[in-house]
Amino acid sequence: MKPVSFAGKSNSRKEWEDYAWERLLKDFAKISSPRDIENILAKIVTAHEKKQIAKRLAAVELLKQGKSYKEISRILWLSPTTISALKKSINGGDYVSGYGWYKKRGRKIWSSFPNPARKGAILPHGKLVFPQRRNKYRS
To answer: Can you tell me the mean pLDDT for 72-99?
Structure first.
C-alpha cells in the first residue's frame, strides 16, 4: 500500500477519511492474494478490531442460518443492539453501532445506567464492575 498523498488545499478530517477509505478499497481491488490482504490489514487493524470484525462476520452468517438474537448473543458475546444493526445492514442498510445511533440522535449514551466509575456500577452486559460493600451507612 502506497503512502497517502492528497493535493487539496482544504484538508478537513472528513476529506482525509474519505480519501483514505477510497484508496484502501482501490488497493484491495488490485490484490488477488488473500495473504497480501492479510498483510495490509495486519498493519492497520489491531488484534481487538480483528476479533470484533470476525465476531460480526460470524453473526451475519448465524443470522443467515436463522439463529435467534439470544443464541447469537450467547455464542459470540455480542449485544442485541449490535446483532440488530448487523441484521439491518444485511437487509440493505449500512452498519451503525448503538453508540453511533445514540450520538446521531443527540441522546445521552447509557443514560439509564449508573456511572461506571462508581463502586458497584452495573454495566449494560449486566455484570457488576466493582463489588459493593454493604454497611450500616449504605443501603
So the answer is: 83
- Residue type for 71, please? E
Q: Closest Cα to residue 126, out of 114, 108, 135, 139?
A: 114
The Cα–Cα gap between 78 and 89 comes to 16
User: How many structural domains is the chain composed of?
Assistant: 3
Is residue 4 one of the residues assigned to a domain?
no
Structural domain boundaries enclosing 80: 48-105
> What is the per-residue pLDDT across 23-57, written as a single tens digit (0 to 9) for each?
999 989 999 899 999 998 999 999 999 999 999 99
Q: Is residue 1 part of a domain?
A: no
- Mean pLDDT of all residues belonging to the chain: 77
State the pTM of this model: 0.58
Q: How far apart are CA 118 and CA 25, in angstroms?
A: 43
Shared domain for 66 and 78, answered yes or no, is yes
Our CA dihedral for 89, 78, 69, 41, rounded to 10 degrees, sits at 40
